[in-house]
Amino acid sequence: DAMVIQNPRYQVTQFGKPVTLSCSQTLNHNVMYWYQQKSSQAPKLLFHYYDKDFNNEADTPDNFQSRRPNTSFCFLDIRSPGLGDAAMYLCATSPDPQGQLYEQYFGPGTRLTVT
Amino acid sequence: AQSVAQPEDQVNVAEGNPLTVKCTYSVSGNPYLFWYVQYPNRGLQFLLKYITGDNLVKGSYGFEAEFNKSQTSFHLKKPSALVSDSALYFCAVRTRYNNNDMRFGAGTRLTVKP
Fold first, then answer.
1. How far from B70 is each of B24, B28, B50, CA to CA, in Å?
2. Are the CB atoms for B103 and B2 separated by under 8 Å?
3. What's chain B's average pLDDT?
4. What distance in Å separates the CA atoms of residue A29 and residue A32, rounded to the nearest whole number?
5. Nearest residue of A to residue B10 by CA position?
6. Overall average pLDDT of the B17-31 stretch
7. Which of B44, B99, B101 lies at the smallest CB-CB distance from A99?
8. pLDDT below 50 — which residues of chain A?
9. Which residues of A27-72 form beta strands (DSSP E)?
10. Taking CB atoms and an 8 Å limit, are B100 and A33 in contact across chains?
11. Under a CB-based contact definition with an 8 Å cutoff, are residues A34 and A47 in contact?
12. At residue B98, does pLDDT exceed 70?
């Protein structure tokens, strides 16, 4: 089945220690998104890629970076995690940026704990 | 700017009773409206969407939603609730003018009691 996969599902890191979360998709979608979700709140968009074009949200902290080496994979790097970065991180995909008609397809999420 | 509001943090219903989860929206232009469900420690799952056409939209798991332009609402409904419907529900909106700006509501926790 075509899907969005996130690894690991649970990640524990230490305060200030860089961490990378990964997302892969078999849907061959052009657009990939990263969201941060805290305590059952609404997901907050961090950034998205349309193919290799990176689009950062204005209020996303510089501490958060992303890489998309190919269509299938996208990584979220947190350079110096703080306690406030503990959250669920959701990856999502969508067929193309003109596809406002399309829903987004979400992965299961990675729950990040910062100690 | 576009936004959605889910006025109820929590909705409780008895199994077998009808359920409604409310959503209102504010956009410039025509809205594209979505409902997602999230189970504990899982990602969001798409339920249904309104793009154009019939105001009553049917989706997964027996859910439906009615688009009401005059009331700027898109309430989620199900005729007979199941205990397994207990989850967190998110309404979302996007417009043709900003394709990648999908705005989510704050979420409504639905609890269906046996």
1. 11, 14, 15
2. yes
3. 92
4. 7
5. A40
6. 92
7. B99
8. none
9. 31-37, 44-50, 53-56, 64-67
10. yes
11. yes
12. no
B96 touching A (Cβ < 8 Å): yes
What count of residues does chain A have?
A: 115
d(C-alpha B81, C-alpha B90), whole Å: 17
The pLDDT, as a whole number, for residue A81 is 97
Q: DSSP per residue over A71-99, as a string?
A: SSEEEEEESS--GGG-EEEEEEEES-TT-
pLDDT, tens only, B28-81 = 888 889 999 999 888 899 999 998 889 999 999 999 999 999 999 999 999 999
Q: Which two tokens stand for residue A99?
A: 């596809």
d(C-alpha B7, C-alpha B14), whole Å: 20
In Å, how far is A56's CA from the nearest CA of chain B?
11
Q: Whose CA is closest to A98, among A50, A58, A57?
A: A50
A56 interfacial to chain B (CB closer than 8 Å): no
